Amino acid sequence: MDDSVRSKRKRSTANRTGCAVEATISVIGGLWKPVILFHLLDGKLRFNAICRLTPAATPRMITLQLRELEADGIIDRTIYPEIPPKVEYQLTELGKSLEPVLVSMCNWGTRLQELNGLPVDTGSCRSTSQQQERIDELMT
């Protein structure tokens, strides 16, 4: 996507205080954005795959989250001229730079669940064993 198109879609993510945490949360905050981004760490995904990986989210909510992430330059959407249309989503370089943040969130959430005596189903937020291996590498 060229800069002229991106600038038209750019969401207002300016923070009021100048706080870097506020700026980050304005882009990746929300119930489903971090989960969607975590799944996209593995590579390109089609819309229905994202829906299957986040079954508690409605397709409408996923659509809204994807549009915001695209407008903020975190993901790219590729539309293939086919019938029916094929659309794939993938992380941009800026989106890929969120990997350590997302991995830290996953690890912190795992510790929180353990501290609260809750069952930890790491498979519910990891889409492949490759991702688990990458997380293990980052943590060592």
UniProtKB/TrEMBL annotation:
Provenance organism: Phyllobacterium endophyticum
GO molecular function: DNA binding
This protein's record includes keyword Acetylation: no
SUPFAM superfamilies: Winged helix' DNA-binding domain
Stretches assigned to the HTH hxlR-type domain: 19-117
Keywords: DNA-binding, Transcription, Transcription regulation
Matching Pfam families: HxlR (PF01638)
PANTHER family: TRANSCRIPTIONAL REGULATOR, MARR FAMILY
Protein name, UniProt field: Transcriptional regulator
